[in-house]
Design goal:
Blueprint (H helix, E strand, L loop, with lengths): L4 H11 L1 H35 L5 E4 L4 H8 L12 H8 L4 E13 L2 E6 L2 H5 L10 E4 L11 E4 L1 H7 L6 E2 L2 E2 L13 E7 L10 E4 H19 L22 E6 L5 H10 L4 E3 L1 H54 L4 H42 L9 H18 L1 H8 L3 H5 L4
Parallel strand pairs: 3-9, 5-8
Antiparallel strand pairs: 1-10, 1-11, 2-3, 2-7, 2-10, 4-8, 5-9, 6-8
Helix pairs in contact: 1-10, 2-9, 2-10, 2-11, 9-10, 9-11, 9-12, 10-11, 10-12
Length: about 425
């Protein structure tokens, strides 16, 4: 039975098993590293850009536009300055504004940020830019006084806390779980949101009114004690003063995009507030982070090139031991071109084996890395291998390995038949 090129390559790989495994692993390391970096980078970029939703401007009292976006959209911290209620109303009443949504941050429940919003928030703000928030169970905030202390949980917050519709909870001041607990006010879970794939999945949504009441009660109690009084007027939605209704950020959407710059100018110059373009700020952040990505991707490519170099050295060094085998193949009718093809096929096969191993490692490492970053950044990041990148990287690894086989292949091509068949010794 005649020996095919495939069977010859397979036998050669088996005969040099240790060399094949080592060189394939070198290729696998480069492929896995590059795939994890590309996959996580692209997934993180999409998650950040998607999270800004359909708002055109984010208005706050923060000095840094980027910080205001990270605080108020991605819940990475607490805004240190607040917008007064009269300035919120001024923004909301500007003619080009379609809607302005007040948000109130500053507390947490078991490490999950709480965000005070008013009912229209769930209808008007589209976190992924296309679809409104929907409920997996329960209802949104109930109308009137009955719903003031209702809670709507983001999907990740619900999974992480184990809370379900009907459960009660108390919130903690600040971002530290060890902070002061507002245990005098009981909140009730009214609904759980379906996943949105954004940072809002990790949020415990409460009514803005409940936030104002909780903190107004503290301030009024402190004022009463300072005045030597034992009691103070209990705050309600009806008796809250404008000073007791601070806003940490305002989500703003315009009726027409050409008016965005006009409103931003009014907000900055006339109201003395910061107006940020959320998507632009995230692109700027990704551009800064992208500089580090280039370095890491460059390192991964260098590792892949090192793997290809290992393929070349392994095959080149083995040529001396294969001279007799190659000469026999020539005697049996194999042409020089066929020998060249066999060595190139063997180097490409090593690259393919390494690339497949690298993809398997990348699939596992990508999930682990994505889970870690999702927890650290608060943004849902997918670790799933991108098929397009997989095809590109695998093709590149095989091509590099094949090119690395050119030098040993040329040596095989030039193997002299007569001298190689002489008896040893």
């Amino acid at each position: 039975m005649p020996m095919t090129d495939m069977s010859l390559v397979t036998r050669s790989l088996r005969a040099h098993r240790l060399s094949t495994i080592v060189t394939a692993l070198m290729v696998a390391i480069g492929v896995a590293l590059l795939m994890v970096l590309l996959t996580v980078r692209d997934s993180a970029s999409r998650a950040f850009l998607r999270g800004t939703g359909n708002m055109h401007l984010l208005v706050s009292a923060q000095e840094s536009r980027l910080e205001s976006v990270l605080n108020s959209v991605f819940h990475s911290g607490i805004p240190q300055r607040v917008v007064t209620w009269d300035k919120f109303q001024a923004v909301a009443s500007l003619p080009p504004v379609d809607w302005a949504l007040a948000t109130v941050q500053g507390d947490n429940y078991r490490g999950y940020a709480t965000m005070g919003v008013q009912s229209p928030f769930f209808e008007k703000f589209l976190p992924d830019g296309a679809s409104p928030m929907t409920l997996a169970s329960g209802t949104f905030f109930r109308a009137g006084e009955a719903g003031v202390f209702d809670v709507v949980l983001g999907s990740s917050a619900a999974a992480g806390t184990g809370l379900k519709v009907g459960d009660t909870l108390t919130i903690t001041h600040g971002t530290d779980e060890k902070g002061h607990v507002h245990d005098e006010f009981k909140f009730t879970v009214s609904g759980v949101l379906s996943p949105t794939g954004t940072a809002h999945d990790r949020v415990v949504f409460v009514t803005a009114e409940s936030k104002w009441i909780v903190h107004a009660d503290e301030f009024r109690a402190q004022a009463a004690r300072a005045a030597g009084k034992s009691e103070h007027e209990e705050p309600t939605t009806a008796n809250l003063t404008p000073a007791e209704k601070p806003v940490t950020a305002i989500y703003v959407k315009m009726r027409a995009t050409p008016t965005i710059a006009q409103v931003a100018t009014i907000v900055r110059n006339e109201l003395g507030l910061t107006a940020a373009y959320p998507a632009s700020e995230i692109r700027r952040l990704l551009g800064i982070v992208g500089n580090a990505d280039v370095v890491l991707i460059g390192i991964a490519i260098i590792v892949m090139l090192s793997g290809a170099l290992s393929v070349m050295l392994a095959l080149y060094n083995s040529m001396e031991h294969r001279r007799r085998q190659l000469a026999v193949l020539r005697v049996l009718g194999a042409s020089q071109e066929r020998l060249l093809s066999l060595v190139l096929s063997e180097s490409a096969a090593i690259g393919l084996i390494g690339a497949v191993i690298g993809l398997v490692v990348a699939a596992i490492a990508g999930q682990v890395t994505a889970a870690f970053l999702s927890g650290a950044l608060g943004v849902p990041i997918s670790g799933a291998v991108d098929p397009v990148w997989a095809i590109i990287v695998v093709s590149g690894a095989v091509l590099l390995s094949a090119l690395a086989g050119l030098v040993p292949a040329i040596r095989a091509y030039r193997t002299p038949v007569i001298s190689s068949l002489r008896p040893i010794g």
